Structure prediction request, 429 residues.
Amino acid sequence: MAVEVVMPQMGESIFEGTITKWLKKPGDRVQRDEPLLEISTDKVDVEIQSPASGVLKEVKVGEGQTVPIRTVVALIDADAPGKGATEVGAAESAAPAEAAPASPAATPPRPAPAPPAPGKSATEAGDDSGPISPLVRRLAREHNVDLFTVCGTGAGARITKQDVLAAAEPVPGAPAAGAVPHVALESAVPSARLRADIYFGRHQVQPMSVMRQRIAEHMVLSKRVSPHVYSFDEADMTRILALRDSAKDAFEKTNNTRLTFMPFFVRACADALRAFPIVNSSVDGTSIVLHGEINIGVAVALDPGLIVPVLKGADEKDFAGLQRAVTDLAERARAKKLHPDEVHESTFSITNPGVFGGLMGLPVINQPNVAILAIGAIQKRPVVVNDAVVPRSMVYLTLSYDHRVVDGAVAHQFLGRIKQGLESWDEKI
Prediction:
């Protein structure tokens, strides 16, 4: 019996995925729930497990190809438990990989996106990367709309069908609804001469990984959509350092996990988000969506980039629960074991350049959040306390926020609340 392996739906807003690596080859024996392939979407890189035990009979979609969800990417022969690589699939392994649609309505797969040729837009060059649905791409091609020129009005600045149709019918003498001003377009899309100037002398060309492409797209989108403003403060961590040093051995023995500084910052942020709910929001066109849950995304550095797993209900966990959740999400992020819903629905984000020695950073907002906190390195510095200069363990805090909904006064009060929570820490750990 042939069992189909299909491209899974990795979230409500995910319509396609890219196969980055096959962990088995045709003829290999696989067990049910054994890792079979790795895929990448615009949200997460993840391993996909085999739906059945048997022999991998045929690989229909090769590495680097992007296909719609529910596309059949491989077949497993569940009736061949004893067959090996020499007995099964010789013809399949020699034949070029090709996609088989899951249904007549599914579109055929396409190669991994390549950079558009000089002088061509993303739509003209057939670039299908980015958080855009297949319907929107088809409409853009039909109406000859360059998606680089369209500013999305959907949730998280997603380009919608209405945005494309509006851009296709501009009002004479006025810019189209959702269109980026021409001067912005010129700076966003490099000219052929500028691109040619990149390639000179001794150089190497290294294609971006799928994850790096997605990061680049999201960062450009965030900077284009959200007017970024930055506020700074610093907090005295001396009290917390002393508490951590005295409690870490007992904590690690009791909870079987290492005690880090991140739970302290998550707790302080959760308290501040309750006090200032506008920072715990998203923007949808001219509406502000105030979130009832406090779901804090914590950026995790990976070899090819970074990912932001989400601590759901961060304000409802006790301190030990926060530490266990932070450790678990970080370890599984590095091992590509995250579930799709663990990178969705964040309402606020934290990034920690301090772990690499950075004093401070100016992070880009993680859409659809309206703010992100950067934590610098904890360092001893001379500080004036009661008119005396004393050494204290200090940390710089940077808040990047969307000035469409968060004003400077609120941002500084928000940072002040975080500072107060850290400096007056009294929660038992």
Remarks:
- The chain has ten helices and 19 strands.
